Amino acid sequence: MSLPSSAFRQFDLFMQHRMVLDVAAPIVFLLLWATGFAVVKIGLQHIEPLTFLALRYGCVVVILLPIQLGFRLPVPHHGRDWLNVCVIGVCIQVIYFGGTYLALRAGLSAGALALMVSLQPILVAIIAPIWIKERVSSKQWCGLSLGFAGAAIVILSKSAIESTPWQGITLSCIALSGMTLGVLYEKKTSASMHPISATLIQTSVGLLLIAPLALLLESGHIEWRSEMLCSLAYLVIGNSLIAIGLLLHLVRHRPASRVSALFFLVPPCAAIAAGVLLGESMPGLAWLGIGLATAGVWLTVNLR
């Protein structure tokens, strides 16, 4: 009887950890992801965008490669699996992050950029039934619509007090397409690869594509200030290692439309972070948008 009792205790402990992860993962991901917009803008005051992104990816590879080799973590065995993980890497690491860095450098505010890329849940909800055969209920559509309305109120209230460069809008749309395709492709391929292996491969793809562009298009000048180093450290550890890992976990274990709904909360959180870190103002009307976005996410995640 001792063996079954021990097995049950281990199972209960596993389930408790799993429940904690399921609750904490969306919250931690949201906070890290949303704050990243302001942190990137701080770093871009001292370094060019593609150079900054290549430096970030290089640091991630240096950290993860010894872990990958030391623990002999599994890697894809088939060419199709390699192709799938590399395509996701191009979508997220190159198109999404490249677009966001360039948009911020073009003058788009952190809050405005966060809103543009938060349109992703609408695109996912439209494409998911066609591409990955994932049904979005009418109740979830109500939540998505409410979340979009809240996010729109945040950006419209901010646009009344700040200019919005068209170059930044265009680049943010490119970034939006990258994240949308990345989430859907990850869900469609149902990759079960170890998250460290997946992050290492995808970041390496980003480094191989971004670094030559940085060398070709930018001067490579870097101001090694404490603000830039702190920004780099946050983006490497908080975004590339923790947030991306949590995003992959959420996409693999939850419907794509429900995971994407979290992005409606990014603009409010990013606006708050930008106000604290950058002094970007947030009008009173934006708080109404925060409330609507929060309600929209709750409806999308909890209703079927």
| Beta-strand share of residues | under 5%
Q: What order do the SSEs take from the amino end to the carboxyl end, as H and E?
A: HHHHHHHHHHHH
Oligomeric form: single chain
Overall SS class:
mainly alpha
| Radius of gyration based on Cα positions | 20 Å
Helical fraction equals over 70%
Low-pLDDT segments, ≥5 res: 1-5, 10-16
Subcellular location: Membrane
Membrane topology: Multi-pass membrane protein
GO cellular component, one term: membrane
Main location: membrane
Descriptive overview:
The chain has 304 residues and is mainly α. The protein has one domain. Helices cover 80% and strands 0% of the residues. It has 12 helices and no strands.
Outline of the structure:
It comes from Aquitalea magnusonii. By secondary structure, the chain is mainly alpha-helical. It has helices at 2-43, 49-71, 79-105, 110-117, 120-131, 138-159, 166-189, 195-217, 226-253, 256-260, 266-277, 285-302.
